[in-house]
Specification:
The structure holds two protein chains of two kinds. Chain A is an alpha/beta fold. Chain A is built from 15 helices and five strands. The longest helix of chain A has 32 residues. In chain B, helix 1 crosses helix 9, helix 2 packs antiparallel against helix 7 and helix 10 packs parallel to helix 14. Classes of the chains: A alpha/beta, B alpha/beta.
């Protein structure tokens, strides 16, 4: 390194020196095939995987039905379960067989229509009980199965009441509407979230290797020997990665809009602004790691642990922050991805709600300023 | 042959555990992750803030609100004069939704006319919103049911009211009666954390030797490629066995998650899984030159493995072609084994199928790695 920067004398204007570092860094980025892989191939692969692989929308659940009653009512209810679009029904001969299927993870639930079901429905004193055993091991799916079974059951009762010409007391009807995401599709909030994860990966992981690499190769002393100031080194090292990350953000946005049919209700300007602001803390974190750690290996590992993992688990991308315990919620405030996540979801699904975007951008800038300030300070200590 | 193999294994263990910092990184970060993620990774919906726009001001509206307040899932229920007034809080994610009780709601209910309430929810958090919708629906319909119960008993002979059907659905949750999300997440984390360790150790160990130049020395030693590969494979199995012993103690003793399976099957599963991961790691390391490439390669596999395993979201929700790909993912099999062992006490027959799959993956990847080493050596 340093061939371009080395030719500079202190008399060159500030911006020309800066341009020289940037040019050198940009050349290095363009020449290194691994940075292309990180910048373009990984984001696209991940967005693709996130888009298709992650879905919280329970599509079709496999259940077993045990029908111990041959009467018309029991047949009707079993038919209601079979014809429902939520369930794929296999029949089991008896209770034991149904329970076995549940235990061996073949089905997610077993509905048992007991003997005497039809008779007790007509009787006044006893009550007919349909028993549903749900695989509770995975609570999210279990919750959805509960909802589906209850909906089918009340439809069944209503249809039966209509047939008999009796009037059922109308229960209170809850009309649910989802703003910003009318069909409550999980993909719509997961894809902006995956962009946050991908941008964190790019911004933090890629930059964390930058200065650590120079340290490993021994070129850092050469860089210090040039007339460059610390500010110039920092800006010159991060700006090319900033541009690279913006390009891959553009690729991600196009994929989201064209392939996954995500709506963009806000403006492109707001989207660009939010992405640019997010890169300040993301790049700053990578830079700080890279001036702290001496080896690329250690830097990459730290980048993964403090950048990528929190962006996955603590940013509200998959797991709702509001449901976490208070001490963990407090930790999330230090994670830039958290602010990016809500901002992106808002720009894509709700629109340019500046009341949301401005405070979040301010927080991101504040976190970024801390990271850059610390890196600036660390760089000087190294010069001693 | 056995002697040479033992020598290689001994050497590997020494390089892995000599550095005290390296010893710590094998134990501390994964345990910390197990702890933090068990709290973070929850799909349960708690602490719901729901705006209430009460245009009705009748007794039944008050009843609904009382019930919401009594539910542990709802923390605050701020009041707003109109939907427009609540909208600002909604946009800023201060509230998850807005419950609108139209004027005339109580009158409708009292007169046994169909009554409706409106629930507007934030689609940006659609999963939490859907679950909150279920809670609200349950609570609101309880108001209606309670009402009919009261009037049925009070009225001597209601002319139009239908006889209440004497039928109900009773839902029981097996394996996890309280639907505690941690019971689901912790067995999964056991698999997930041993994946990253086993994969990274093997992927990096060969790359490091390549960088240092000691790998060529190993290749020209009397050890055969199979012995070298086995020597690299077995230490991660040991590490995985030790780590999972620690995890299973934490998960069952500290978090009180039941373990309903057989311990022998558990260790068989851990070893088969670690062998499969180490095989994948060996393949990666036989293809790369530097540690950095090995790290990136392992990471590029780690993410798809964990996403397409049922760790975060169920495999059943994926399109069929991705479901097919998951059959080649060791973690997907491991998670089914862990769920079966911890929570379900699944039959041995259903477990052997998954175990066989893991062994198949381990054999294929190790074989491929040996072939690649041999080609490099030639």
């Amino acid at each position: 390194m340093g061939s371009a920067a080395g030719r500079l004398s202190p008399t060159h204007p500030w911006w020309q020196q800066l341009a020289a570092v940037m040019l050198k860094e940009a050349k290095q980025v363009v020449r290194d095939p691994s940075s292309w892989i990180i910048a373009l191939v990984l984001p696209l692969t991940f967005l693709f995987l996130f888009g298709y692989g992650i879905s919280l929308d329970t599509t079709v659940v496999k259940i077993a039905v045990v029908r111990e009653d041959d009467g018309r009512e029991a047949q009707d209810f079993a038919a209601a379960l079979v014809s429902s679009r939520w369930f794929l029904v296999v029949s089991a001969s008896d209770r034991r067989a149904g329970e076995r299927l549940l235990q061996d993870q073949t089905v997610k639930a077993v509905a048992i229509i007991p003997a005497e079901f039809g008779r007790s429905m007509h009787a006044q004193m006893t009550s007919a009980q349909v028993q549903v055993l749900v695989d509770g091991a995975e609570p999210n799916t279990a919750n959805f199965v509960h909802g589906y079974v209850n909906a089918i059951w009340s439809d069944f009762l209503a249809a039966r009441a209509r047939q008999q010409g009796t009037l059922m007391t109308p229960p209170v009807d809850v009309q649910v509407r989802y703003w910003y995401n009318a069909n409550a599709e999980s993909r719509w909030f997961l894809i902006p979230g995956s962009m946050t994860v991908i941008m964190t990966l790019l911004g933090t992981l890629l930059t964390s290797l930058v200065i650590a690499r120079e340290w490993e190769r021994g070129t850092l002393e050469a860089l210090y020997a040039t007339p460059l100031t610390r500010g110039q080194i920092i800006i010159g090292k991060t700006l090319p990665y900033f541009l690279l990350a913006m390009v891959s953000m553009l690729v991600c946005v196009l994929t989201a809009l064209l392939l996954f049919q995500l709506p963009l209700r806000g403006s492109l300007l707001a989207l660009a602004l939010v992405s640019a602001v997010f890169l300040v803390p993301a790049l700053g974190q990578g830079l700080l790691i890279s001036v702290t750690m001496k080896s690329q290996m250690a830097a990459a590992q730290l980048g993964l642990m403090t950048g990528f993992m929190p962006a996955m688990m603590l940013s509200g991308f998959l797991f709702d922050i509001h449901s976490m315990p208070p001490w963990l919620r407090a930790i999330t405030f230090a994670i830039p991805a958290r602010y990016m996540n809500i901002s992106l979801q808002t720009v894509f699904l709700a629109g340019d709600v500046w009341a949301v975007l401005l405070p979040n951008m301010l927080f991101m800038l504040a976190v970024g300023a801390v990271f850059f300030g610390l890196s600036w300070w660390r760089l000087r200590k190294r010069l001693d | 042959m056995l002697q040479r193999l033992l020598a290689i294994i001994r050497k590997e263990l020494i390089t892995m555990l000599r550095d005290p910092r390296a010893r710590w990184t094998l134990i501390v970060p994964p345990t910390l992750q197990l702890f933090i993620f068990s709290f973070a990774a929850t799909m349960e919906v708690k602490n719901i803030d729901l705006a209430v726009v009460d245009l009705d001001r009748g007794p039944y509206a008050a009843d609904i609100e009382q019930r919401l307040r009594g539910s542990p899932s709802f923390t605050t229920l701020p009041h707003y004069a109109s939907v427009a007034a609540a909208r600002a809080a909604f946009e800023r994610e201060r509230v998850l939704g807005i419950l609108v009780l139209q004027s005339g709601f109580s009158a409708d209910l009292a007169a046994r006319r169909p009554a409706t309430v409106q629930l507007l929810l934030d689609g940006r958090r659609s999963n939490a919103a859907q679950i909150a919708a279920q809670y609200v629906t349950l609570i609101v319909s309880a108001t209606g049911a309670n009402l009919t119960g009261v009037t049925d008993a009070g009225a001597a002979a209601p002319a139009v009211a239908a006889p209440q059907p004497h039928a109900e659905v009773v839902i029981n949750n097996w394996f996890n009666p309280n639907l505690d999300y941690r019971w689901y997440m912790l067995p999964n984390l056991v698999g997930m954390l041993s994946l990253s360790v086993a994969l990274m150790i093997t992927a990096l160990s060969v790359a490091r030797e390549r960088e240092l130049g000691t790998f060529d020395q190993t290749l020209v030693s009397p050890a055969t490629p199979i012995e070298i590969a086995l020597g690299k494979l077995l230490p991660p199995l040991l590490v995985a066995a030790v780590q999972t012993t620690l995890y299973i103690l934490i998960v069952t003793l500290l978090y009180r998650v039941p373990f309903r399976g057989n311990l022998l099957v558990f260790y068989a599963a851990v070893l088969a899984f670690a062998a499969a991961c180490a095989g994948v790691g060996l393949c990666v390391s036989s293809l790369v030159r530097t540690q950095q490439q090995a790290f990136l390669g392992a990471f590029a596999l780690l993410l798809p493995f964990s996403l397409l395993s049922g760790f975060a979201t169920p495999v059943e929700n994926m399109p069929w072609w991705l479901q097919f790909i998951t059959t080649m993912n060791p973690l997907a099999h491991m998670l089914r084994l862990m769920q079966g062992l911890f929570l379900k006490g699944a039959s041995l027959a259903s477990m052997t199928l998954e175990l066989e799959r893991l062994l198949e993956i381990a054999l294929c990847t190790t074989f491929a790695a040996v072939l690649l080493f041999r080609r490099k050596a030639a």
